[in-house]
Amino acid sequence: MEESYLDAYQPAEMAKRAEASAIRKANRDIISAFFLAVQAGSFIAFGAAFFTHVVHDMELGFGLTKLIGGMTFSLGLILVIIAGADLFTGDTLMVMGCFSGKVKVNRMLKGWLFVFLGNLFGSLAILMLVYFSGHWLTHDGAVGAQALSIANAKVNLTFTQAFASGMLCNILVCLAIWLCYSARSVTDKILAIIFPITAFVAMGFEHSIANMYFIPAGLLLKSNPDIVAMLSHPDLSNLTLNGFIVKNLIPVTLGNMIGGAVFVGSIYWILYLWKRNK
Predict the structure, then answer these.
(1) How far apart are CA 218 and CA 224, in angstroms?
(2) Please, what are the domains in the chain?
(3) In terms of Cα–Cα distance, which of 233, 256, 243 is closest to 156?
(4) Is 232:96 a contact under the CB 8 Å cutoff?
């Protein structure tokens, strides 16, 4: 039977496409990988800034506000996938190429490091532009107060909470990317992205690259007494550089790695590629 080019790719074909993507990423030169990562970091930061602006006014109720906020945050991954960029959390699916013996582990880890750093650079670049734009002063500073509240909540998670939340987040992020391998059009990809990303954001799970925008935003806003005064008796003692790196970024990153590599990449490699490579 002739293949229909209107139908989505089936899971076995999706696995081959994911494996091929891992090989392409592993063979990229470092400069290209870094700048693609800078793009991805900036795209996720745009999604984070958009989310903060939308949810700062909770008049619709907590659940509905989070739902709409999650849909707006989907902008970040839509830009990454459609415009073309390299996101650390999505790159955890590169383990599929490693298991097949087509990507060396040291190349994968080296790629992860450069992409992680590029994502950080891109996130911070957008952060500084948002800061100098005065955007956080919108609605008499309410947007800034929301950004500060988001950052403070993240650095007050326990290690276990941050780690488990990071795992749950990247299971959904990598499932969104996995679904994109079934897509034959831009519309398919956008629809594949929206629901998993909305789910992780609405449920408050932790994304390491998004937090490269969220928490540094709080660190900047902490020095603005007018913004701080808008919060009700805030305890900002953990909102420090150490709190950002040790209490959030490290456990969330580890959770993201395991969530994507083990619970998505490894599972689908076993289901669809293991026997082919035996």
Answers:
(1) 10
(2) 11-277 (1.20.1080.10)
(3) 243
(4) no
Amino acid 258: pLDDT:
98
Predicted pLDDT at 4: 55
* Whether residue 55 has pLDDT greater than 90: yes
- Please give the share of the chain, as a percent, with pLDDT higher than 70: 97
Read off the pTM: 0.95
Annotate the chain with three-state secondary structure.
CCCCCCCCCCHHHHHHHHHHHHHHHHCCCHHHHHHHHHHHHHHHHHHHHHHHHHHCCCCCCHHHHHHHHHHHHHHHHHHHHHHHCCCHHHHHHHHHHHHCCCCCHHHHHHHHHHHHHHHHHHHHHHHHHHHHHCHHHCCCCHHHHHHHHHHHHHCCCCHHHHHHHHHHHHHHHHHHHHHHCCCCCHHHHHHHHHHHHHHHHHCCCCCHHHHHHHHHHHHHHCCCHHHHCCCCCCCCCCCCHHHHHHHHHHHHHHHHHHHHHHHHHHHHHHHHCHHHHC
* The residue type at 241: L
Rounded-to-integer distance, Cα 110 and Cα 60, Å: 45
Number of residues written out for the chain: 278
Please say whether the beta carbons of 72 and 47 come within 8 A. Answer: yes
Q: Whole-angstrom Cα distance, residue 7 to residue 22?
A: 24
Report the 10 Å Cβ neighbour count for 162. 25
The number of helix segments (H) and strand segments (E) in the chain equals 15, 0
